[in-house]
Amino acid sequence: MDKQNDFKILIIDDNPAIHLDFQKILKMRESTSGLNKLNQLVFGDKLEEDLEKSESDEIDFPGFQIDCVSQGEEGVQYIQQALEEGAPYALAFVDIRMPPGLDGVETIKRIWALDQEIQIVICTAYSDYTWEETVEELGLSDNLLILKKPFDSISVRQLACSLTKKWRLMQESKNREEILEKTVEERTDSLQKTLTVLEYQSTHDSLTNLPNRSLLVDRIKQEISRAKRHNSMFAVIFIDLDRFKLINDSFNHESGDMLLKQIAKRLSEVTREEDIIARLSGDEFICISVSAEVHEIEHVAHIAKKILDTINKNLHIGQRDIIISASLGISIYPQDGTTVEELLHNADLAMYRAKALGGNQFQLYTPELQEKCIVRLENESDLRRGLIENEFFLEYQPQYDNKSQKLIGVEALIRWRHPKKGIVLPMDFIPVAEETGLIVPIGEWVIKTACSQNKAWQDKGIKPFPISVNIATKQFIQPNFVTMIKDILKTSKLDPKYLKVEVTENVIINAANVIESIHELKKLGVSIVLDDFGVGNSGFNYLNKLPIDQLKIDQSFIKNINFNRSDEVILQAIIDMADKLHLDVVVEGVETSSQVKYLESHNCHKFQGFYFNKPMSAEQLEHYLKT
């Protein structure tokens, strides 16, 4: 053993001669084969294997660093200092009688108070304490042995070797235990952190970090309990983004995720700290407002308006600026529900009412909404059944050039022959179809039927004319929309120049891939009509960007002709602009002779409306054209 690893032994005895004896005995190096055999008998072969092995097969006598003191107080100080230096003593030989200071028993008590692991050998030549008395004073300990004076060198060396080895094994065991405890502690900490992460993940939305449905339900339950105790109220605000699926389909899901994260951030910023914002699913969020003023409708309306305003602000997504709106539904505890399910359900109903009214607004729950919801579900079910049972049919409204007195085309208009309600007009079922996505298969049926009918008329010798079909936003954003048009034209054998697709400016604004699809349709030879032109404020922006063939002026501009000066100015501006851009113009909704005269006086001669013809069945139109 090198000096750095020598065992430290402390001799506490008031006789200097004893100090010299211990140093002489314990610093001798001689063959220790007998001691090695004794160690194996005492500690076993396994413990022997844990010792460091020397270069030879024989284990050398261990090295000892020996310190000597004459009084118990001094010995205690040595023990304390060694502990503070991180180099404790392994063994102490303590004389039982050391006048005038502490005796051996008191010294050992104080040493063990500092270091319970040090091995002690009591050296005594007198019968000051019996074994029983020693045990009574110091307790029964395997760290304590008695050595009677006079002692021989073999006994001292045996004790020193065995007890220091025992002390070392105790230290190694303690170190292993500390390492094990540290490992257990680290793993426990790691497990706790993992559990914390898992708990957070199970209660929060991974995209926005807002509380999810699970945590939301728990928070609402807490609010219900609190409101019951304090006889108070709170509001559940159901937030659904308008046309979010359109953004996802038009751009990509990454853009949609970016938008949701920005909306979540804005909602968290616009609400108070005590309010709760959660993401329910998809583009649905919930705000729980716990304000004391919730009982005042004006205050709830103020909160809803703040939410709408913050959502309406321009969003920068990638390289695009997007403006989005939301529909909000509000239920109040306890008047609109006393359970989590009732409050969420009723807020959801109110939200659907806001969406049905055009979106970008809020609605408060009323009991009547439940009945409207039932009606809406029945309509959706009816629509699905209507498609399966072939209950839809088309009527055709002619378009005329009054100057040449010739038919210039027809518009295909869908009708629903309902088994109980009779003939249902588009305004009563198209909104439900668009909301549910059924507009896609219904729209495809319209295009197929219109193209096939137009070709059938041509095959019967009727002079060819174009047929117009209205295209909804959800149809246009379908990835296979243009391919579907190609397939229908090919199957029906209709020349593309006899098909017109009518789109509104809202379709162009709200769907990113519409412009590309319009250009592709134009290449096919299909004509493009910008419908309801002038109603919005963005149609003018697309006239020089899109291959538009025709403008269709909305009937709202001619309804009050001769009475509304601003409508007249706008109408004249549209007609003049179309003429300069070489665009065809058709005015729809023409119902009176005065409207016809006014339009013709302003160089507009192409009309569609009840003044000329109401929509007809295919057979009626065929008969009309033949006569």
Automatic annotation (TrEMBL):
SMART domains attached to this UniProt entry: EAL, GGDEF
UniProt xrefs under Gene3D superfamilies: 3.30.70.270, 3.40.50.2300, EAL domain
Keywords: Phosphoprotein
Domain EAL, first and last residues per copy: 376-627
InterPro entries linked: Biofilm_reg_signaling, CheY-like_superfamily, EAL_dom, EAL_sf, GGDEF_dom, Nucleotide_cyclase, Rev_trsase/Diguanyl_cyclase, Sig_transdc_resp-reg_receiver
Coiled coil (residue ranges): none
Residues annotated as domain Response regulatory: 8-164
Modification sites for 4-aspartylphosphate: D95
GGDEF domain sequence ranges: 232-367
Annotated signal sequence range: none
UniProt xrefs under NCBIfam families: GGDEF
Protein name per the record: EAL domain-containing protein
Organismal lineage: Bacteria, Pseudomonadati, Pseudomonadota, Gammaproteobacteria, Legionellales
